[in-house]
Amino acid sequence: MPVYEYTALDGGGKKLKGIIDADSLAAARQKIRHTGAFPVDIRESTPVSRGKSERKAIGFTLLQRVRQQEVHVATRQLATLLGAGIPLVPALNGLIEQTTNPALKKIIAQLKDAVNEGNSFTAALSEHPRLFSKIYVNMVRAGEASGSLDVVLDQLAEFGEAQQETKARISAALIYPLVLSLVGIVILFLLLTLIVPKITKVFADSQEALPLPTIILMNLSNFLGTYWWLLLLLLAGLLLALRYVITTPRGRKIWDRLKLTAPLLGDLNTKLAAARFGRTLGSLLQSGVTLVNGLRIVRNIFNNVLLSETIDQATEELEKGGSLSKVLRGSRWFLPMVVQMIAVGEQSGTLEKMLVKVADSYEKEVETRIKALTSLIEPFMILFMGVIMLFIVLSILLPIFEMNQLIK
Q1: What are the residues whose beta carbons fall under 8 Å from the beta carbon of 208, sequence distance 6 or more?
Q2: Residue 121 in contact with residue 140, Cβ under 8 Å?
Q3: pLDDT digit string (tens) for 123-146?
Q4: pLDDT value of residue 244
Q5: Which residues make beta-bridge pairs with 6?
Q6: Residue 237 CB: number of other CB atoms within 10 A?
Q7: For the chain, first and last CA: distance in Å?
Q8: 20 phi and psi, to 5 degrees?
Q9: Which of 49, 99, 167, 274 is the least crowded, having the fewest Cβ atoms under 10 Å away?
Q10: Residue in 346, 353, 348 with CA at minimum distance from that of residue 329
Q11: Is-contact 357 274, C-beta < 8 A?
């Protein structure tokens, strides 16, 4: 069934905008009039003749205006409607009416259209891969196969909201030190390029021998004032070179290894990866996805070649009849606690519960560690700024003291 975008006027002359599905343009106009509004402009958004590839393109365009939080809310609303015994198509229709984001409305209308045409809900979701991840699609597939789609959608909403909340907490903890560092760098740059040259010009005109700190300060100030653009070019060049190196297989491996072994950050990244692994795989298993398929999906969430290779080895071992804990025990990238919890879960048949506990534990630890690290940045930045300011002040005062000595 085609979907139409419309602009209409209500009884009071107020302009209304929305979307509506109908068999034809005339039927769409009639539906709008039944609501008590007068249609001004109606345009087809998703013609029936459009194929799968075109729907993907539309989904990508609309994605730019859809936030993941809105997807989580829509998922929970759909789970509630299905849990109340409402069939999928009427539930999607009700979801369209509840959704306020026009872009998300169009995507839900396209999902409803695809299901009306006889496609499964999983197939409809897979036409929008940029909005609905592999994890999302595979959990829905398991829910459709088991007849518990409402339960799976509720789990998906909780999983998505938990992930979003974790990211928000980490981002909030990092914003303050980043802003503090940026402000400090800007203040120092302005001080060295605008204020210091005016003060040190007096010393340069005196033609007296200047102390070493003053000479260093003057040269640094002149260099920054003249060649600041060169520093920006060098920084941009380094970033581009690093980006190019990361795109090569060997460079990417070295970079990913560095992320897991760097002081302070390496341990933090390892624990964050363990939390994401436990949360994602646990949610997939709870939804009825098999362990092998779950591992194939999870390997894509790390954005780390070394971790993905370990998961590939674990998948191969499982297909041969081995155990997940055995493979992970031989890897240095998975912490001993993770391996022990997985081993206990395999023996007791509660692997998904153990994985969720691992995720809960490491998410709290990561958050605590980030707060501790960011709390150290503030005094470090204050100390750093204090040392720089002390150097500047001494560099300016030393020549003044020497001049006073000469006058005496």
Answers
A1: 399, 402, 403, 406
A2: yes
A3: 999 888 888 888 888 888 888 877
A4: 92
A5: 18, 42
A6: 10
A7: 97
A8: -155, 145
A9: 49
A10: 346
A11: no
Residue 8 — φ and ψ, nearest 5°?
-140, 170
With bands split at pLDDT 50, 70 and 90, how would you rate the model's confidence at 3?
low
Instruction: Identify whether the C-beta of residue 107 lies closer than 8 Å to the C-beta of residue 66.
Output: yes
Whole-angstrom distance, CA of residue 356 vs CA of residue 344: 13
- Using pLDDT thresholds of 50, 70 and 90, give the confidence band for residue 48: very low
Question: 82 near 153, Cβ under 8 Å?
Answer: yes
Burial of residue 334 (CB within 10 Å: 0-12, 13-18, 19+) is buried
Max CA distance (Å), the chain? 101
Rounded Cα distance, 329 and 115, in Å: 44
Separation of alpha carbons 46 and 64, rounded Å: 18
The per-residue pLDDT for 165 is 81
Distances 159 to 116, 282, 355 between C-alpha atoms, Å: 28, 10, 13
Whether residue 50 is predicted with pLDDT greater than 60 in this model: the reply is no
Query: Which amino acid is present at 307?
Result: L
Could you give the count of Cα atoms lying within 13 Å of 23 in the half-sphere of its Cβ?
A: 2
